[in-house]
Each structure stands twice: as structure tokens, then as C-alpha cells.
Amino acid sequence: MSPLSLAVRDSSTMLRRNLLHARRYPSMTLNLLLTPVMLLLLFVYIFGDTMSAGLGGGGGGRSEYLAYLVPGILMLTIGGTTIGTAVSVSMDMTEGIIARFRTLAIHRGSVLIGHVIGSVLQCVASVVLVGAVAVAIGFRSTNATALEWILALGLLSLVSLSLTWIAVGMGLSSPNPEAASNNAMPLMILPLLSSAFVPVDAMPGWFQPIAEYQPFTPAIETLRGLLLGTGIGNNGWLAVAWCLGLTALGYAWSKSLFDRDPK
Fold this sequence. Notes:
mainly alpha
């Protein structure tokens, strides 16, 4: 077999393995899904009217705030799902299966590729489920064209890919799954510190740079513009640049850790 055929075959096998693990042990995925769903319901039904009044003086009530909130919740869902990836990679490292894979005549990178593709598929599935909940409680994207929907899906996939590679590196560098879960928590905390819940200009002045100069805010603003038909400005290019940079960083970091000789 050619090197490319070997890589595709082995990566497909590892992807199938990771999807089977996710199907047999769904508790972690469900637990990580519960947080964005609960935040969505909490902010819409408890704080929706109050938060809507602060959106540029709007008075659209819960429906207006729901439209503002959903893009941020979808990004939060991706960040939460990738925590499971860090834990899964760490479990493989600590349980010795990675050491056994190293002795087999398989493509060396297929183990990580299987984790990454499996995680991206889980992120997309999680986004669809949370999006379905949002639609069920009233979210509508009436102004988005077919092209904008395609671009929105592409952005969500690109964000999933970039965060997954970072999560893989966190899993490889952690001594145990518990540490991997803790180390990956910023992937879920950063969306809370972005423009997911309130506009950046409504935040205290000292906090605005923290919310503005991070990867989630431009990604959320781009997704919000695509789904709601609002302006995107430079956020689209910034979101893509952040994603490509994090993907390259996560890939280089993960490959370096994976290629180290085991101690």
C-alpha cells in the first residue's frame, strides 16, 4: 500500500474506535452538553427580558436576547465538547494503549488523526443538538441565506478543528485524565468571558480588552452576523486567523508530545 492509502486506512480504523468509545460511554458527552443547554434556558427564561433591555436599548424581550445568545452558546458547546477529547487522549496515554499502538505497523499519526476527526464530528453533533433546543424555544434565523448557512457551518467546523488540536495537546501533556479535564477548562471558560452574553462595549473598561482580544469573540461575532444578517466587519478574518493559528500551534504541540520517547 502507498503511504497515503496506509494513512487513510489506519486513520479510519482509529476514527471508528473513537466513535465506538463515544457511543459506549456517552455520559461525559451528555454531561458536557448539559452546561450549554442549562445556560441557554437560564439566560433566556430567567434573565431574557432584563438582558434584552440592555441590547442597544432594545425592547424585544426574550426573543431578541435569544437571537443574540445562541451563537455564543454554540461556541460554548464546542469548547465544552473538546474537554472530553483531552480526557480521552489522556486516558489512552495513561492506560498504555498508546504504547501498544507504537509497537504496531500502523501509520504513526493515525492515532491522533482518529481522535481529532472523531472530536470534530462530536462537536458538530453537539452543536446540532443544542441548536435544536434553541429552535424549539423560539430561535429563528430568517435573514440568513443558503451561502451564509454554509459559511456558518464551515466556521463551526473550523473552530472545532482548532480547539480539538489544542485539547489533544492538553491531553498528551497531562499526567492523568483528571488533570486533563482541569487543564482544558479554559476552552469552556473563555466563551464566558467573550461577547457571548453581552456586547463588549457594555463591559467595564478594564475588562473589555480581555473579552475583545481572544479567539472566541471574533468567532462569535462572525457566527452572529452570518445567522442574523448583521455586520461582521473584520471579525471574519480575525476568526479565521485565530483558528488557523491555533490549529497550527495545536498540531505542532501535539505532534511534538506524541513523538517523544516514552519514559
